[in-house]
Fold:
Amino acid sequence: MRHLGRAVLLLTLIIWSTGNGQTKKDLKNKIASNSRLFKTNIDKAYIELNPLLKESQQLKDTLSELKILDRKCRYFYSKNILDSLIISSEKLQKKSAEYHYAYYEAMSNVYMAETYSMNKFYDKAIKYLSSAYNLLQKENPKSEKIFYAKANVLNSFANIYLDKKQPENAAKKIIEEIQSGNEIADPEERNRFQYLNYSNLADIYTQLNVDSAYHYAKKSIQLKAKNSPDDQSMITNYSVIGHYFTTKKNMKKPFPIFKRLFLSIKIMVPNLI
Structure:
């Protein structure tokens, strides 16, 4: 802290410091509001990003700046605007490296991986995902944000391996994700996490071993929260189990399974059927 000899200057600095702190607080509130808007009206939320970015740079609020740059990447990713996504990802990578925020540097690599994956440059995508995962491994392993970021990277690996027609490697990544789920202390949260993972694994194993696929689908169903409505994971589970009985030529079993599948889809997408 700077020691000052003049009370008037001290008073001036105190007023400036308090005002600046309040401005940063206001900025964080604006970013939080933008985050909520992003979920309901992504285009309207995007319009706010450049003014927020400018404000964060004027205040030298580096974390807020990175959050906004990351949000711009997510916008272009959701809109499938790849050229803008590449440019935004490179900006995020540069700034996160400059400010020494490994999490956002990892996210920039994830976005780059997505652009290469969409263009079917799968090996380059895998390289970027590996860089992202290595960066996240250096972060606090007890951080919930880091944990789920690593889980999402593993899931991205699996999707790319499926695109490459390598279901064995895809399954390995989901199994790694399942193993990481043991770190979740809360039983309900752990079950929600593993419910999705086992459903994904069941889906992959329809290409490898139908018996294992059936086993993992049942495991997923066992982990589903009671009284929760069917979702996409349950549709996958019903499809896998129906496929299993059809493959085994047990045609008495598939009918109720496919009926459940039909009803679940009808509830989720009422205008589709």
